[in-house]
Amino acid sequence: MEARILFFVFSFSGVNCFFRRFGIESSSCPVPPIVVGLSDDDLQYALDAFESNVSSRVSEASPAVAVGLVLNQDIVFAKGYGLVNISDKSRGHPTPDTGFRIGSLTKIFTVIELLQLRDTGRLSLNDPVTRLLPNFTVRNPFRTTDNITLRQLASHMSGLPREAPCSNIYNGGCDIPYDEMYKRLADISLIYPPGVMPLYSNLGFGLLGRAMEAFVNRSWEEYVKEGIVMPLNLTMTGTKFSEEVVKKMAVGYIGTEEASLASLGWEAPAGDMYSSVNDLSKLMFLVFRNTVPYKQLSSQILDGETIREWMHPVYVASDRTGYCLPWELIPNGDYQMRCKAGAVNGYRAELMMIPEIKAGVVILQASEDEDQLGHLLDASFDLLLSVDSLMKKRQPRPNISAVPSDYVGTYVSNDFGTEVHVEISIIESPAGRLLHSTFGFDLIYHFNDTFYLTLRYQPHTCRQWNDSIEREFIYFMRSGNTVTSFQIPGLEYGRVYKKTTSRRDSLVEQRNNEGMRNTV
Predict the structure, then answer these.
(1) Is 40-393 CATH 1.10.260.40?
(2) What does the pLDDT look like over 440-477, one tens digit per residue?
(3) Nearest C-alpha neighbor of 136 from the set 200, 193, 215, 191
(4) Rounded CA separation 31/516 (Å)
């Protein structure tokens, strides 16, 4: 038994040495709360503070702003501020259904198409773009023959420049024949070798959308409408600014001038769409259904496993920022939020989520007021951390059916030619949770006669948490109602610890023996 204890102690002290050696401060690993519903009363203070922040920056006569908070599958707050058209006050204030251009949030829809095509087996994320567009070529000044892949286009890892070779791109300058575009691309150079460093590229997303367009023989615009917008029942989301759509949109402003709604042309898959707070909330609903199988619901257009993959980082910098497909990683408290920012003539858009707690905020703004947007972002970051704090305070107590004294006692194993003794005793029971001690670990009740092993000594880092035996199961067996043995198959497959006496019986026996010795 002594050697076994030393083994576990060495395992954890070794991890501590790793952190000390490389100057990483050992601190507690944050554990996200179980996602629970929050009542209006729970949220009232946080929402009041958020709304006060927004109202203090967006006046009644300002260009339109709309914001929304999503928790799991519910829109718990959505409101518009300012005016839909400051030149026509009769149009009133925006609502959660008012349309705004969303700029680069369009990239989310382009990536959904890519993931859908991948899930059908028709292509791989690691396919070179030339498989879909054989006539695509670009100058590569680096000593590499690596081809740009679809994954690299979707994660800004292609090495391509930021913009397509178009003049005055945001005022219709990229509305050119595709053949002409590919001729121009042949004359531009990569800035980085593919896959080496992130470089934000609208050009890359234009190329991705048009490559898939050629592959499925259907326009990107048609695919987004039929494969994404309609199944998700997005009623104010699209790519075409028809007269009917424009009537339902907030007017965007560059300073005091009305912004044009000119299409980005060939580069449209990077930033040409419009949407509303309510519709982007439905998009977050999809992200938060990350355990639901494909098509189990009519709106489940991606499999839950694919959604979880979608959130995985492709690149993480030392400051915890980075990229997914195409999410931008932004640190906020203990979390790396999945965000997407959009900017196009006269409009700004922000979508930010903490998938671990299924909470997200959307901001739509019909102006280029960056100071105002920064203030709204700060308020949104604070709101999401408030939600996290509220969930942690509302964690459910486990429904514990186990009786602590059932497991107390001495257990012995004679398997594998060695005799090992283990003592299990009650140490505490905070918040209705069962805790026992063995091997220097606590046992946390899971279900029936099953417990998790967990480190006794806190705090510990995420690296320690993942490298240790945290969360291994210990299973107790019974004969009738009596606990008779336990196993930890994830650590010691085949070894069975059999109960010899209860802790109480062994203490009584020890006292009796001491009494007999004193009498003699």
Answers:
(1) no
(2) 677 777 788 888 877 655 556 777 667 666 678 999 99
(3) 215
(4) 52
